[in-house]
Amino acid sequence: xxxxxxxxGITMGDPAGIGPEIAxxxxxxxxxxxxxxxxxxxxxxxxxxxxxxxGVTLRVRTIARADEARFDPTTIDVLQVGHFDxxxxxxxxxxxxxxxxxxxxxxxxxxxxxxxxIQATVTNPINKEAVSAAGIHCTGHTEIYxxxxxxxxxxxMLAEGTFRVVHVSTHVSLREACxxxxxxxxxxxxxxxxxxxxxxxxxxxxxxxxGLNPHSGENGLFGTEEKEEILPAIxxxxxxGLTVDGxxxxxxxxxxxxxxxxxxxxxxxxxxxxxxxxxxGFRYDPxxxxxxxxxxxxxxxxxxxxxxxxxxxxxxxxxxxGTANFDSLINAIAYAAALAKGRRS
Length: 345
Fold this sequence. Notes:
40% of the residues lie in helices and 20% in strands.
């Protein structure tokens, strides 16, 4: 029954980016309504323009409260947040107004989830420069969610099908990322990875931990982080009963994950985990000069609420074309719905 499906709140993203367009296309896709009851948090007038731009046959309905949503597959229920001056909107351009608005959509969505009005949240892309221009300091969605839920123990997970990667650090410089590879943090992320797999129905997760240095340090020849920080964390996790392997050299661990040897990999920093995941999920079509696929999901682990996201940015160069790929959003909605159902059971 439709009423048994979880309510998933979906943010509109930066008004000047592709978020409104891919949201319109996702709401028009039967897969969206098959997995959940979707609710758009953003601006109704911008969504009406996105509907016209993409050519989907949907109505846009403005609501003030989540309990007013009807979840009609022919309609996008938009929970209006603030008032955006649509006449001043320039697609594909960074602006403080868009940054302020997109931040407001995220905060309102978090509030709805924390109050139990929705069972999961999905975020469309925001632009960090635009948010900063609005005078709001944040390094990304993950940190916004952590702040507004009072969470200190969290991490990012990327998923493309059964290819899952979690991160010891994310939005910091590479130099700082090396300094953040500490036993306590590595052990914490191993635990979060284990919990995430359990929530996805994997009873005994096989976890691999990537090395930081080439060849996992070659027993100290290329660095000591593996011996001093990573291996002790792995040994403690194993002593706690977890199935953990490593440190495995980063140049082979992801091939092993892709081959099915592991269920999830703990990466040491942002690009170490993002590059292999996006290599699988992203495919560029040189003839059409656009992305043929941008599959993949970003999930924040450790929060008291469920948050998934598209695994790409605002794509200002495509905004207004009506041709952006919405695969990642469909995947994120399905993942959020699955996690919400897992929490119910």
